[in-house]
Amino acid sequence: MGNAYRHLAEWFEYLNDDCDYPKWSQYFVAKLDLLGAGKKGLELGCGSGAFCRALTRAGFLMSGADNVPEMLTKAENLARREGLKISFFRADAAALRAPEKYDFILAPNDVFNYLPPEKLVSAFKHVTKTLEKGGIFWFDVSSFYKLCNKVADTISADDREDVTYLSFNRREGDRVRMDVTLFVKRPDGAFDRYDETHTQYLHEEAKIAAALSEAGLELLCTEGHLGEPKEGSDRLNFICRKK
User: Fold this and answer.
1) Structural domain contains residue 211
2) Which tens digit of pLDDT belongs to each residue from 214-235?
3) In the chain, how many domains are there?
4) CB atoms < 10 A from the CB of 138, how many?
5) The pTM is what?
6) Which of 22, 40, 128, 171 is the most buried (most CB within 10 A)?
């Protein structure tokens, strides 16, 4: 992942305020209840902890794991500000090591797009070991459609009073490289510049399904973002159960 999210951590939720975190979180809450997923959960690749906080407020016992120290610091600060008791720890989605087992593991918002296809089986096996028997594993990936038709070979921009976000995106074979620049306003009115590089891999649905099966996970369903039909959706949700 390189330096991805080390500078963006401070601004991530702020710049993603159009993704409707409350609606997205309620989608998880409703379906986790429907699945009988239990109450003890881990958000893998938790970032600044938006879903951890929402699920904790909904009555779940959440922990959060991320591999970016700046993200974990932001997550801890935001949880503390809301008076929420959430345990955060550093962990790599490619080789998850956790202090305990969980009833369910969530990994939303592109976590596994940052892993190349050849690492998926190993990563999923680590998830399987971290789940209780019958536990739920639920993650999404940005779809082929989104990365190829909406992201690749484009420029994304978000210009606000206190921060400007620019992303120059291009496809490189089986991945999309995103060169991100942030301009952050200082108290004196000048701006500091920060640069990051993000690489997201293109994953085929059938190959993900095969990797899950090899890792001991039963694929219960695949659906689009917020449960919409998967054809043409920006995200594919994979909802699995440990065999």
Assistant:
1) yes
2) 999 999 999 999 999 999 999 9
3) 2
4) 21
5) 0.95
6) 128
